[in-house]
Amino acid sequence: MNSTSLPWQLDLAKPADIPELEILIPLSVRELQATYYSPAQMEAALGPVFGVDRQLIADGTYFVARAENEIAGGGGWSRRRSQFGGDAERVGEDPLLDPQKEPARVRAFFVHPRWARRGIGRALLLACEAAIREAGFREIMMVATLAGEPLYAAFGYQVSARFEIPLAGGLTIAAVRMGKRVEPE
């Protein structure tokens, strides 16, 4: 997973990375999503929609890009039912998916604004897709932000639905359900 030709390297996230991810996520959201969502929407979405999901880290399906002694980005995939969001408000077990019948989820992509548009999102997505194929899934699904939609579309993901995620205070945030088929390894 590590490459000597890049200024960053990909690793699986560890529980010790959570405090740094909790700092990275709001920075990423407030700067990189600002063109698409209002400040009130972003603040209401931090936590329930944009937040750390410790289950991804525990499952070994969340990657971080490390550069210059910091986490420059993170993104993962899941073999569990949750489609998006942090784990702060989740209650109970998040059931496993059947790779033969259900799509894996691509989840929780965030890049530090200083590292935006340098290939980190691409590398994270490729790492997720490889792991998803290795796990035997035949389909991938995600709930993308408007800012993330162009990246995923460039990798062949097709829009299946556009919808609003309800937030506190009567606010909503626009999201895009996207997916594609893959060949398992």
Cα gyration radius (Å): 15 Å
CATH topology: Aminopeptidase
Query: Within the largest sheet, what's the order of strands?
Result: 1-2-3-4-5-7-6
Sketch the topology as an H/E string, one letter per element.
EHHHEEEHEHEE
Counted beta strands: 7
Q: N- to C-terminal separation?
A: 17 Å
CATH superfamily: Gcn5-related N-acetyltransferase (GNAT)
Largest sheet at a glance? 7 strands, mixed
Beta-strand residue percentage? 25-35%
Question: What is the approximate shape?
Answer: globular
- How much helical structure, as a percent, in the residues? 25-40%
CATH class: Alpha Beta
Helices and strands, with pairings:
Layout: E1 9-12, H1 18-32, H2 39-45, H3 54-58, E2 62-67, E3 70-78, E4 104-111, H4 120-134, E5 139-144, H5 149-154, E6 158-166, E7 172-181
Parallel strand pairs: 4-5
Antiparallel strand pairs: 1-2, 2-3, 3-4, 5-7, 6-7
Write up this protein:
The chain is an alpha+beta fold. It has a single domain (9-82, 89-181), classed as Gcn5-related N-acetyltransferase (GNAT) (Aminopeptidase), CATH 3.40.630.30. Helix content is 26%, strand content 28%. The protein contains five helices and seven strands. The protein has helices at residues 18-32, 39-45, 54-58, 120-134, 149-154; strands at 9-12, 62-67, 70-78, 104-111, 139-144, 158-166, 172-181. Strands 1-2-3-4-5-7-6 form a seven-stranded mixed β-sheet. Strand 2 and strand 3 form a beta hairpin.
